[in-house]
């Protein structure tokens, strides 16, 4: 039977064998939620990069550029890290370059996997449906915060395991912990996360609406996948 495992932070990814697995990267607050929202609103592609310098170079080549550090927009870039910024009709068919504190770094670290998918609560059902038909093991890579685990990405991992528990073996403790955590909090994720570090960080910036939005389940039927260095919306 196929296995599903959870890597709680990119700093632990070297402990996992990913070259014969599908990696699902989750940065719920807010990078992967932005990416899913962007594809749902018909952005053509997104190039995730690890550094501000790489993002600026793509901006100079004509990409719309989004750069975030410490939950705030970097000066001189076109877009911030709020999913509401990716809903504008004028963004249809545009190409976006993106760098964030945690999420894009997690994606770039995963490139040796069989496939790299972008996951969030917003496209949870679409990701689960796609994975049910795949022959590979799955590793959910939680972007965390600067090398440390966080609650929201771990809860996403548990939610995906809950959807896939009939199709995959839950073999390792990190996956069991994530699954149990989600089942404890799934009745009211917003309250369950109330004292978590990233929610407190975002609330200090006055963007509570992003938090509530990113915790909604199954809004979009999109599956972003990394093709080379570029994310596109998979045809499913």
TrEMBL record:
Provide the cofactor list for this protein.
Mg(2+)
Q: Which parts of the chain are coiled coil?
A: none
Swiss-Prot/TrEMBL keywords: Hydrolase, Magnesium
Hydrolase keyword on record: yes
- Keyword Magnesium carried by entry: yes
Q: Which GO terms describe its molecular function?
A: 2-phosphosulfolactate phosphatase activity; magnesium ion binding; sulfopyruvate decarboxylase activity
What EC number(s) is this enzyme filed under? 3.1.3.71
> Which Pfam family is one of those matched by this entry?
2-ph_phosp
Catalysed reaction(s)? (2R)-O-phospho-3-sulfolactate + H2O = (2R)-3-sulfolactate + phosphate
EC supergroup of this enzyme = hydrolase
* InterPro entries xrefs: ComB-like (IPR005238), ComB-like_sf (IPR036702)
What the entry lists under HAMAP family is as follows: ComB
The text of the family note is: Belongs to the ComB family.
- Protein name per its UniProtKB record: Probable 2-phosphosulfolactate phosphatase
């Amino acid at each position: 039977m196929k296995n599903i495992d959870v890597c709680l932070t990119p700093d632990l990814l070297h402990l996992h064998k990913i070259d014969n697995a599908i990696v699902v990267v989750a940065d719920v607050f807010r990078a992967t939620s932005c990416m899913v929202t962007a594809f749902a609103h018909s952005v053509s592609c997104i190039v995730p990069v690890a550094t501000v310098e790489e993002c600026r170079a793509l901006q100079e080549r004509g990409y719309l550029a989004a750069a975030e550090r410490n939950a705030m927009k970097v000066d001189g870039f076109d877009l911030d890290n709020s999913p509401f910024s990716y809903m504008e009709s004028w963004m249809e068919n545009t190409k976006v370059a993106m760098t964030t504190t945690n999420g894009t770094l997690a994606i770039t670290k995963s490139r040796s996997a069989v496939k790299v998918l972008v996951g969030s609560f917003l496209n949870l059902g679409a990701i689960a449906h796609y994975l049910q038909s795949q022959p590979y093991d799955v590793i959910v890579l939680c972007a965390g915060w600067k090398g440390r685990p966080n609650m929201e990405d771990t809860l996403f991992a548990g939610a995906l395991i809950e959807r896939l528990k009939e199709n995959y073996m839950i073999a390792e403790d990190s996956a069991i912990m994530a699954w149990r955590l989600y089942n404890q909090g799934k009745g009211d994720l917003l309250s369950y996360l109330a004292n978590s570090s990233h929610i407190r960080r975002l609330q200090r910036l006055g963007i509570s609406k992003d938090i509530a939005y990113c915790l909604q389940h199954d809004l979009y039927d999109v599956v972003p996948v990394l093709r080379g260095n570029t994310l596109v919306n998979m045809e499913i």
